[in-house]
Amino acid sequence: MKQKGNFKAVGEAEVAGGVSNFEDRRTKFYNKLCLSPEEVSESMGLCIDTIYRMLKAGILPSIRVRNRYIVPVSALEDKLNELVGKEVAV
């Protein structure tokens, strides 16, 4: 691959080896029992600040462990199914 500046050009073969489609992303996160807010942010495609506001407001389910939030995957899926079609103000 030819490099331009500090960036490496990415070929199709390299993309295929990474997380490139929805099923791969889903498998990456949903083989876990709990997710970090960062993982929730990445999997939902929302800003991390929005995720933290949703956690603090109780919109998204979480468990507080000292100063960290962890989000149980099964509770997150249930809550998202409940919120489908509704508008959420954060």
Care to describe what's here?
The model is unreliable at 1-16 (pLDDT under 50). This protein is α+β, with helices and mostly antiparallel strands. It is globular, with a radius of gyration of 17 Å. It has helices at 12-17, 22-30, 37-44, 48-56, 73-83; strands spanning 3-4, 7-8, 34-35, 63-65, 68-72. It has a domain at 33-90: Arc Repressor Mutant, subunit A. The chain is 48% helix and 16% strand.
Defining traits:
90 residues; alpha+beta; Arc Repressor Mutant, subunit A; three-stranded antiparallel sheet; two-stranded antiparallel sheet; 5 helices; 5 strands; globular; disordered N terminus
CATH topology of the domain at 33-90: Arc Repressor Mutant, subunit A
> What is the molecular shape?
globular
Task: Please mark out the parts with pLDDT under 50 across 5 or more consecutive residues, or reply none.
Answer: 1-16
Major beta sheet, specifics?
3 strands, antiparallel
Give a nutshell description of this structure:
The chain is α+β, with helices and mostly antiparallel strands. The chain has helices spanning 12-17, 22-30, 37-44, 48-56, 73-83, and strands at 3-4, 7-8, 34-35, 63-65, 68-72.
Q: What is this structure's SSE topology?
A:
Layout: E1 3-4, E2 7-8, H1 12-17, H2 22-30, E3 34-35, H3 37-44, H4 48-56, E4 63-65, E5 68-72, H5 73-83
Antiparallel strand pairs: 1-2, 3-5, 4-5
Helix pairs in contact: 3-4
